[in-house]
Amino acid sequence: MQMHIRQAISQREAKGFDTQDLRENFLIESIFENDSVVLEYTHYDRVIVGGAKPVGKGLELPTYDNLKADYFLERREMGVINVGGDGSIEVDGTSHTLSKKDCLFIGKGAKKVIFNSNDAENPALYYILSAPAHHSYPTRKMTKEEASPVSIGSLETSNERTIFKYIHKDGIQSCQVVMGLTVLNTGSVWNTMPAHVHDRRMEAYLYFDLNEAHRVFHLMGNPQETRHIVVANHQAVVSPPWSIHSGCGTSNYSFIWGMAGENLDYSDMDFAPITELR
User: Fold this and answer.
1) Global pTM value
2) What is the pLDDT of residues 200-215, one digit of tens each?
3) What CATH superfamily classification does 4-276 receive?
4) Which of 65, 74, 117, 183 is the most buried (most CB within 10 A)?
5) 203 in a labelled binding site
């Protein structure tokens, strides 16, 4: 069983990409498919991004030939955030219930992971981000209420939003996975502005709670030579360490940010001032 592999793209190569090239290399268009685990292996810090949507049955996390491992988490850890209906994740026989926006970290060494939904009419949608790990941290759940939500931004700049931090230096402990989510208030459409890059780690965004008639214009690329990708609900963008990651929607929305690389410091950002963007 194989995962699709996304090669690392340099700034020089991306400079010549047209719209279709950008979408093929950086956009994951289909993450949640009925009764399937859909995962993409990237060569950005060897991060795996994807989702699980159990509808009529529980879904066991597969073992993929790409990993050359006896089981998926033999040398990896993963963060999971539910963006759908209520469900549970069974980790080596222990069940963890997850409502919408709850997070579960699963440490290296967990052998059997099964994703479940409580209601087939309103299935759980588990967004997954996994990275290599050198140490086994314990499996831990955190609800959205426990994530110490922080409200920032303002309606005057169209970015009034609430940030929930789950897996990071001062939250759930991990080797290198960092995860959380941001909810934009009604009337706000901008995320992560001023934009920034992380020269020391990659990042991926999953957009959710976006009305099907609306889109987000996700900004990426070198700060002095930006590009954009038009993104729909339940689609994700993979962001290289050299790229900004920001966006503006035609309506408000939410998104999950997930990172892996050199450190666990949420505030490790190299800002690109608005006045210097091109």
Assistant:
1) 0.97
2) 999 999 999 999 999 9
3) Jelly Rolls (2.60.120.10)
4) 117
5) yes
